[in-house]
Amino acid sequence: MNSIHERNDTIPMTSLRIGSWQVSISRCLLPPGQLASRYDANAADWGCTARRYQLETAYQQTLFASGATDLLMGVSGEAQVLDCGVGTGSLSIALQGLLADEPINWHGIDTSSEMLDTAEASAGHAGMTISLKLANVLSIPYADASFDMVMAAHVLEHLPQPDRALKEMVRVLKPGGRLFICMTRRSLFGMLIQMRWRTWAVTEPQGMAWLRGCRLSDIGVCSINLGRFAGLGSTAFWAKRPC
Ligand SMILES: C[S@@+](CC[C@H](N)C(=O)[O-])C[C@H]1O[C@@H](n2cnc3c(N)ncnc32)[C@H](O)[C@@H]1O
């Protein structure tokens, strides 16, 4: 049987209760190779997308609210930060904008080689050096407890089981380190993204349940304003790996 049609390769789209009937509709995911090719094809335009949704400003407001900046400023020596699904680097560049001259060692992984090329160029324009690797968030090529902060924006909703990626992100997080993620939420905007990219549109309770399953502490959540085109289109979640 074709593996695309196995249950683990689908994403729940909608569920409707009619009397004693529960009707649920799921959609087959884009296979990983096709997803990477789509992002390769979109890499050149991703900067425009990021500007349309005011990603850098939106990320800065939420990163600040999450306390990530205080945490990184409190690290003695050079803090280690990993951006999973780095894309063109918007999230790392937003965080760097908040940290002024803090010594940070930036790392990024992505499954799209074109996105990584664009990330290198964008980071260069922002005056950052970022170490980039072609790699999957489900199998992060770093040792356990390597990072002070591990983050991912608009990546986990592409996966059939986002909690598996979360567990892998927690593996590479140092005890006391900070996890920060953003995911498209259930909304009209979320539905449009779902139709185009076959992603999850994540509710707050669902995201919180995934984080609690990773045995994290200090879990926080807030909506992200993506400007006039998308409104409160995403949700940010953050948490600490207990010491
Ligand atoms: C919507 S873009 C977001 C990019 C960036 N984080 C941002 O906020 O602008 C999603 C990115 O995740 C990458 N991606 C998708 N699935 C991935 C996976 N399993 N592992 C690593 N990266 C992945 C895509 O190639 C793409 O660059």
List keywords for this structure.
single chain, 243 residues, alpha/beta, Rossmann fold, seven-stranded mixed beta sheet, disordered N terminus, binds S-adenosylmethionine
Tell me what the structure shows.
Strands 5-4-3-6-7-9-8 form a seven-stranded mixed sheet, with helices on both faces. It has a two-stranded antiparallel sheet with strand order 1-2. The chain has one domain: Vaccinia Virus protein VP39 (Rossmann fold), CATH 3.40.50.150. The protein is an alpha/beta fold. The protein has helices spanning 32-42, 46-52, 55-66, 68-73, 90-99, 113-125, 162-171, 188-197, 204-212; strands at residues 10-18, 21-28, 79-84, 104-110, 130-134, 147-153, 173-184, 217-224, 234-240. It is built from nine helices and nine strands. The protein binds S-adenosylmethionine (SAM).
Which stretches are low in confidence, meaning pLDDT under 50 for 5 or more residues running?
Answer: 1-6
The share of residues in helices is 25-40%
Estimated radius of gyration = 17 Å
N- and C-termini, Cα separation: 45 Å
Oligomer: single chain
Bound molecule kinds, no repeats: S-adenosylmethionine
Q: Any idea what the shape is?
A: globular
- The CATH class name reads Alpha Beta
